[in-house]
Amino acid sequence: MNYLGMDIGGTAVKIGLIDPQGTVLCKDSFPAAFDGYETPLMQTALRSAELFMKNHDIDPAVLGGIGVSATGQIDSRTGIVVGSAGHIDNWLGTPVKELLQKQYGLPVFVINDANSVAVAEQWVGAAVGCSHVIVVTIGTGVGGGVLTDGGLLTGSGGLAGELGHFPIQVDGHACSCSNPGCYERYASASALVRMVRESYTALELSVPVEQIDGRTIFALAADGHAGICKLLDAWIGYVAAGLIGLTHIFNPELILVGGGVCRQEALFIEPLRRKVLHGVMPRFGESLRLKAAALGNDAGMIGAVRGLI
Ligand SMILES: [Zn+2]
Known about the structure:
With 309 residues, the protein is α/β, with parallel strands linked by helices. Helices cover 37% and strands 20% of the residues. A hairpin with a 3-residue loop joins strand 8 and strand 9.
């Protein structure tokens, strides 16, 4: 019996048909932010699911259930969005599980997107066979999931693993969660872009400031642009600082780094690994590995389906 996996994110709703071994059989992506969320994200998700099943000739009656990986703070027990640190209107309070159950009459499991990535990587990705893992996803923000003693750390309200929101600068930039200096304000890909834009004049770049993004920055670093390399090194220092702290708290055997930037092995993953291993207390580094996550954009939907099996 196959499962429907949905990944409801701020920019896209990704949907796939997934078999019981965690293989994605077919998938599609649907835009989510086309009218600034005036159309509620959940309405877009429900419509996308209908369209996906129609396009791929899938009869919901033969599915084993629907696994949903969703942005924001998700109470997995109720399947309700209980917090939304981002800026998605009409999303907080959405009863994701109830709405899908009503539409399809199938078992539904809902999980926070970054936690879902951790579960997926342990199931069929880069953390197979590992029991103590920190997964950190670096994108617009920083998300995470912590696997401890083989299972996902959930916390008292199912909210654990918000790795983007602990302070690394007491007087730092204000975060979307309203606290100053959160990790994601310094270690996200958006933070790297902000750092480069703030130094734009001094860097004497030929690229227009509005075209600076992660891809441009890594391309300039690959070309050996000294100013960019220096900023990149400072940014990797922020990413490492958080991971060093988390390593001391959770004593993982493996740190997986996800998000688009994790494809930069030589310019990001390798120097990050060096900084983390250099910064942790010796015993914590002895068996610690740090590498890129393996499942990319499919991880969310795969991990959510795992919750049904
Ligand atoms: Zn925060």
